[in-house]
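Journal club side-thread
Mid-discussion, someone asked how the predicted structure for our own chain would compare to the paper's figures. Pasting it here so we can look after the session.
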Amino acid sequence: MGNVIAKDPDFWCSTDDPGPERHNADWMKRVSDSKFLSELSIPGTHDTMTCSYSGVEGLWVWCQSWSLGIQLNMGIRFLDIRCQASNGDMLLNHGGYYLGTLLDTLNGCVNFLQTQPSECIILRIKQENSSLEGLGFRDAMFPFLERFSDHIFFKTSMLTLGEARGKMVILADYDMDGNDHIMRYGCGMSICDNWEPDSKEQKIDGIKDNINSAFSAVRDRKEMYITFTSYTWLADCPRELARSANPIAHDFVRNHIGCLGIFVMDYPGFQIIRDIIDHN
């Protein structure tokens, strides 16, 4: 694949599988069924499937270096999936670059859940680089959700982990009507995704503010907090931005106690993933 990056395992990852001793394939097994998903600390990846890109622009396209299977074994439970509807198919897309198909991604999730039934996988599915308007994208997406209906938990309100085990949970980031029976991305959620900040300091401050809100003892148990550490800055590629942002985020995670919400990263290393999981 050619995606060679810095190899400090605490903060960011190499292309290699760190090995079974560093996997967190069944970490949800130790969490109570009664917990809402919004009460968990969940590691996630931004533009999850960019690892599959093999073109010459890779350094600016890649946001991850691990395959989907490695990410899931490492403990990632929130996937950021960008889709383009095309001639009856759903293609994965990042800034116009082809990354594979939604069908292969959903099959990969199902295969993992069949071996790890204690787990659930949250997928934010976003319409990207698609010309469909109104409910057109929703109509194009419907056959794929229907095909995997046995493996998706359909509910518009927040789920408990007990309900979600063994299932995919869809957060729809596209236009829907009131009869889709899946959660709408952003509804009942506090999302920090300032991907184009005025300064690096502004980005870090936003991360800290959203996590501090997630820690709050008075917050609504059913409100989901999603914090993206990823962003763009001048000509820097995602790898270099993760090199500086991930250690800061890791330090913040390690020095706080309580619920982090969903923590979405570029190039997460095994230690930051494990430290997020340890907040549960």
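Post-session note: DSSP finds eight helices and ten strands in the chain.
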